[in-house]
Amino acid sequence: MQVALREIGNCIIRRCDLSDLISTMEINLKTLPEHYSDYFYESLLAELPEAFLVAEVDKKLVGYIMCKIEYGFSNFKKLGFVKKGHVVSVAVLPEHRRKGIGEGLVLEAIVGVKLKKSDELYLEVRCSNSDAVKLYEKLGFVIKQRLKAYYRDGEDAYLMAIEFAY
Ligand code: ACO
Ligand code: ZN
Q: What is the per-residue DSSP string for 11-56?
């Protein structure tokens, strides 16, 4: 049993357990065109459980966020080499959207990557995905780059990032 990190109405946000991975994959299949192998989910959970979180309503999962930690060039500091959190994927089932669950997942993932002393957190998002872009902007992410034909179908991505102060 994982402790609740945050409550939003009748929804709780908590760390993911191994037994949550099938439901997490199902939410991903229903909500996004980018899918991953079982092994990839397991390895993200093993590597960064602090920022692999699920949203639960009435014992059923309705959303998730999963992240990893990388080392590389800063999205903010010229020539800076930093520890970066990377939001690999976040989603909420359609019938549970616009209640603050997506925001809660991203905010708690920020707490998780800060526990690992990351300097920044970044992600890619489809340029047409204005709901998600608005969510990230609300939380302080800024668009740093446009990545041409980032997705398999040829769509561009925005690289969005947020910098942390300790
Ligand atoms: N229209 C306008 N603004 C929106 C919308 C919308 N439909 N949805 C979210 N927002 C913005 C608003 O600023 C909102 O704040 P407000 O309610 O105070 O106006 C803020 O985001 C927070 O909204 P939440 O209710 O917390 O977001 P929700 O729980 O609906 O989840 C999410 C948002 C995750 C983007 C959801 O729409 C979703 O699952 N979409 C499909 C999957 C997806 O696109 N995931 C992101 C891909 S990019 C990546 O994974 C790195
Ligand atoms: Zn990515």
A: EEEEE--GGGHHHHHHHHHHH-S----HHHHHHHHHH-GGG-EEEE
Digitized pLDDT (tens) for each residue of the chain, 166 residues in all = 789 999 999 999 999 999 999 999 999 999 999 999 999 999 999 999 999 999 999 999 999 999 999 999 999 998 899 999 999 999 999 999 999 999 999 999 999 999 999 999 999 999 999 999 999 999 999 999 999 999 999 999 999 999 999 8
CB of residue 32 inside a 6 A radius of ligand 1: yes
Which residue's CA lies nearest to atom 31 of ligand 1? 102
C-beta 137 within 6 A of ligand 1:
no
Task: State in Å: Cα 58 to ligand 2 middle.
Answer: 30
pTM: 0.98
